[in-house]
Amino acid sequence: MAEFFAALTEQAFLRQALLAGLLASLGCGLIGPFVVVKRIAFLAGGIAHSVLGGMGAALYFGFDPLLGALAAAVVSALLIGWVRLTWRTGEDTAIGALWAIGMAVGILFISRTPGYTTDLMSFLFGNILLVPTRELWFMAALDLLLLAVVGLGYRHFIAVTFDEEFARLRGLPVAALYLLLLVLVALTVVLMIQVVGLILVIALLTLPAAVAGQWTHSITSMMVAATLLGAGLTSGGLALSYAPDLPPGPTIILLAGALYLVSALVVGALRRVRTAAPKRDS
Amino acid sequence: MSNGTNRARAAGTGEPPAIAITGLHFAYGEVPVLEDVDLEVSPGEFLGVVGPNAGGKSTLLKLILGLLKPSAGRIRVLGEPPRRARKRIGYVPQYPGFPREFPISVEDVVLMGRFGLGWRLGPWTRDDRAAAAAALDEVEALDLRERQIGTLSGGQLQRVLLARALVGEPRLLILDEPTANIDQRLEGEIFELLAQLNRRLTIVVVSHDIAFISAYVSRVACLNRTLVCHATDSIDGQTIQDLYGEHVRQIQHDHDHGEPLALGTTREHGPHG
Q1: What ipTM was estimated for this complex?
Q2: Which of B94, B92, B89, B110 has the alpha carbon at shortest distance from B202?
């Protein structure tokens, strides 16, 4: 760990990696709570995996893979949202199909692109140590966009997440808000891909928010707590992985998984103690 | 009790009826649920809708709220099509449409009723919070304000849902089985509360419990695919038997004093329609 802090002062790439982690953690906080309480983790997973199609196509046609990822994420979010709003049932099949088709398309494109096969691993599992400055700016812009939209509309998003029918009766445009929320999930997925890769995104999107949810009692405090947890987990994972030269993405995810497990056990134990003793709400 | 007095007061003011339904038909696919329903609810009225399970009560409410479209017929609510009148309706559902473990306080749930009073971004205003406090106070649940929604008892939750409906400043209050999930002592308290609210609001309440609500409401509509209306004092054994289609154990209650008697037997006529 001391080795990491020493390196941090010397190595610019490490400072950039740390910054990338911090930028991604705002996504954990702002969007993660909605994914957790609305129970759309599988949907978010579908969006994340379909992104490979866009990245592969972008590589093949010579665009920035991140732009391809952004386009693919938004398109698949709207597709899944449209399926759910139109048919209600069959949503999970549609998600599964999009999940696999997106990956298949991506791998075909990458296989046809000479010299890019090494990129596949960093798409899948992230490469926080190789985030160029340009991408940090891109991540910061996504963060600002998320912050603005959620800051202005969080009451509306909470309303459609909490009770769709009642929101509709109060005249809220429920379908539009739902689609917008899915688009925000898509943006967050793209935001996190550089850090942990598209396969592991789902953990970073849900675990900090899930842990926060075990200790807080409102969506807004969940957002604050999940952002801080996300920042701690990405920085901590990065630091832990440095000395033994482990890949940082999986280390971050394992750390998040461990925290979730410990938190769940502690909450369970506290609940048992509290039901035994006279009850008082925290 | 407020039986009839509000209706008399509202008559002749030229206000459109709170609800006007003519020739309403509705079917889920091939299965007819409502046939040829006519109903007019005057401003200030307190209407009870009773009938067996699957008699179409909740469907009728969904049509009035504009959540379903009629197969045929016309519905006007406060003089407008249901979808446009929606924001002026306070609705208390039978089953809340949210998971009980959702991380949200009572105050924030009640605040949800403030949507529809103007489009605004950002946080709730001080006025919104004051209105939520006033609504909670009116249903005698102000002390629950900071509680988590999941920690409430059935009766407390019912009051909170009522506050959520009231905070949107409705003209018409619609309740679907407001007492189905609470014990019978609290049932009386809820109806006393509704009787008070009826001084300023038109109320439509659906219940399976004809004997109980007829002590409070000014008129009873009996719904079993078709609709028949009665003044509350004309309900007799034959009416109930026609409606539920089997022998029903009756109880006595006194309309003039409004105190329901023999509460313990009111749930005898069960869902066998």
Answers
A1: 0.87
A2: B89
